[in-house]
Amino acid sequence: MSVVEHVREMAAAGLHSNVRILSGLLLTMSGNNPELFSPSQKYQLLVYHADSLFHDKEYRNAVSKYTMALQQKKALSKTSKVRPSTGNAASTPQSQCLPSEIEVKYKMAECYTMLKQDKDAIAILDGIPSRQRTPKINMMLANLYKKAGQERSSVTSYKEVLRQCPLALDAILGLLSLSVKGAEVASMTMNVIQSIPNLDWLSVWIKAYAFVHTGDNTRAINTICSLEKKSLLRDNVDLLGSLADLYFRAGDNKNSILKFEQAQMLDPYLIKGMDVYGYLLAREGRLEDVENLGCRLFNISDQHAEPWVVSGCHSFYSKRYSRALYLGAKAIQLNSNSVQALLLKGAALRNMVRVQEAIIHFREAIRLAPCRLDCYEGLIECYLASNSIREAMVMANNVYKTLGANAQTLTLLATVCLEDPVTQEKAKTLLDKALTQRPDYIKAVVKKAELLSREQKYEDGIALLRNALANQSDCVLHRILGDFLVAVNEYQEAMDQYSIALSLDPNDQKSLEGMQKMEKEESPTDATQEEDYEIEIELICAGDDLGKLQTCSNCILLLHGNLAVFSSKHCNVFWKARYHGTRSVKARTQTWNSSENLQIGKHESVLI
Questions:
Q1: Among candidates 224, 228, 256, 479, which has minimal Cα distance to 374?
Q2: DSSP character for 321?
Q3: How many CB atoms lie within 10 A of CB 35?
Q4: CATH homologous superfamily, domain 1-132
Q5: Which of 60, 131, 303, 527 is the most buried (most CB within 10 A)?
Q6: Residues 149-207: pLDDT tens digits?
Q7: Whole-prediction pTM value?
Q8: How many Å from the N-terminal Cα to the C-terminal Cα in the chain?
Q9: Where in the chain do CATH 1.25.40.10 domains reside?
């Protein structure tokens, strides 16, 4: 057995570090004595050495060695002369054991994609004759063409994959994302569906994802639900993830979170879709849950965009925009097609008043996900922030026409109309239509309440908000209801609404400000005549076991002016205490379980 054959065997056995050392030494020997190895042996050594570099993620070095190998292969084709070697290379037909030139080019393309040199990857794969392209080469080409915006070439390559492998479901998704009709795609799989038992669900699956890619969320949800209910596909994590994403796109955050949690329980190592899940949790003010989710995902893999996005959402909703920007950029570096990462970075840039940079990121998100409304919402918010109302109106109208007249698009268009006094009535009409379609759609309720506030129709606003809160609980709705109740002098109930809002999201600054303002209005004399001071407060909760008092580490203390607010999600309690001077303390509380002690200052305590 020759030394090159030993290298080949180690490569086949996956001993990449061993191959790297030995092939490196042999290539140096060959450089010092060109007669030592035959052209075919040099070609093999270069390929095996490049493979070991690829395995070590040294992609640029690997490309260099693969290029040298291809040059050596050209020289080999020009001569059939076999030169003597130290490895006794006498006798076997070299063509039987030479690494495939097609495979070498594919690995070069992989290196280029890892180096984000997509044009070079396309060029190297384009050089392979069509008849010699394997399914994996066509699949890579299809994805690269799609990313480069060459849709026709991408469709052709995806179809070629399906011709060779009719059950390549990712290729099917690729075709559907490029607006190929579901019926046409289904026809390409019909023969295999009819010839293999228990594949009758595939045509329904194709139909469902055709609805997904045309933006018909309602029919997509119904179709996937019908699939998921079938006994053979029940509790499929991919289908649950798709359902969660569709509910999110449809603005049904409650059901979206539910499906994500269900998928997560079935697969504790699930990463796909967790960036959206983290974003939804952050929007609800569940920052501790977001932090825990981020830590868990980092333990699974830090080479995916999702953990970085989740951590970025935690920073963004904690108002640490610079850190959110960094984490979003890191996520994009790992996956340039991560829509959620682009939205995170765009939102951070917008809040840092770098609007033009934010616009670039939102536009890229729209290119990647033209059916996701939140991408358009981010861009329109940027236009409004820079007073580009005309551009915002054009974009909102385009979304309305493209995605159809549903509650979300109607509300988005109404949001822009509210910015112009001339189109206030149009905004009102649009919001009424949206609320007729979906009376519980929070964004529509918020915008309608904003309109009623401008018109000082507080009683109408209170009725609207009470109806919306009948079957759901939302921090923003409770806070706005509190504002409306203050306007009609219902101070006690307003305080209760602010309390509920803060129990849902302890970081909601506007609820704190509303409560603080109301406290000052209740007793302006105290506020001006008595000196405020910062007090030391400890909240002790009785948890589930009433016999044992324990300090709850999840309790949150917020001090604002002369108002102390305590919120504990863990024990489901909410406290408000107002203090003046040295010892004067007023305390109010709402409790739902347990018994508590509130200790104020060094010696005083109030037992509730």
A1: 256
A2: H
A3: 9
A4: Tetratricopeptide repeat domain (1.25.40.10)
A5: 527
A6: 999 999 999 999 999 999 999 999 999 999 899 999 999 999 998 899 888 899 999 99
A7: 0.77
A8: 87
A9: 1-132
